[in-house]
């Protein structure tokens, strides 16, 4: 998810997307443990997406 998409999304959408992204990251991590992923950079991309969404949610709570 791009930062502009994150800024435009509602809080409920972000919470849903955060849950989906965390689940996808967990699945990828488990698959990578069993056998190496073809593209392990996906793990980093999911971690960064989780951080971006969580940061935006935190900023919205503070305001």
Number of strands: 0
Low-confidence stretches: none
The helix content is over 70%
Oligomer: single chain
Radius of gyration: 13 Å
What proportion strand? under 5%
Kindly summarize this structure in a few lines.
The chain is 83% helix and 0% strand.
Short key terms for the protein model shown above:
63 residues, mainly alpha, 83% helix, 3 helices
Describe the structure.
With 63 residues, the protein is mostly helical. It has three helices and no strands. It has helices spanning 3-8, 11-34, 41-62. Helix 2 packs antiparallel against helix 3. It is elongated and about 45 Å long. 6% of the residues are buried. The mean pLDDT is 95.
Topology record:
Layout: H1 3-8, H2 11-34, H3 41-62
